[in-house]
Amino acid sequence: DGWKTLSRARRISEWKTNTDGQLLTSVFGAELFRDLKLPEISEIEITLRWKGKPGFLVTFAAPDAIRLSTEAVKLETWDDELVLQTLASDGEFVQLQTLTQQTKSVQLRLLWNQQSSELAAYARYGELLGKMKVTGDSGKGLSGLYIQNQGSDLTVARVRVSNWNGAAAADVVDGKIRVHLVNGEIVYGQIRSYDKTGKRLVV
Fold this sequence. Notes:
Structural class: mainly beta
Order of helices and strands: EEEEEEEEEEEEEEEEE
Helix content: under 10%
Low-confidence stretches: none
Strand order of the largest sheet: 1-2-13-4-9-10-11
Distance between the termini: 33 Å
Number of helices: 0
Largest sheet: 7 strands, antiparallel
Strand content: over 45%
Radius of gyration: 17 Å
Shape: globular
């Protein structure tokens, strides 16, 4: 709910919802756009999955956009490579990782700074994969998330947005109980009880 398309040639009906509430498509070129009202400095956790050949584009756009800004930074697949590049490419790009035939999903933490027009991509557990910055202030006001399928199929399994304090993404320790605060901080601990009255977990 709340997703739409930018291009008049595309239809939101090209996407379906599975039993887990995830959006999926097998239509090449199918796109999703939503103004998530991203903070000027934000962290976006995104999980994408596919069954066939991987192919997708992820970038940002203004709430009232009818097309993508050529100066925005994009996350995109090139055959079996995941890269960062600007939409108006001058040949410069940053290689993030190789997607093998066995790779059927990516889980990324994107740190998007509209103030500096910089996008940094981190692996799930905090490893910096790469970052790219556009000159000027072209990133300001790009508070909406855009996703396009460029492969055989694509499932948007998870999108989570939180504020970001501008520091490098914190490493995530797998297997430990943790709470992700809205400011991007991660707190580890043990769940001691559940307060039914206050509807809150005591850690």
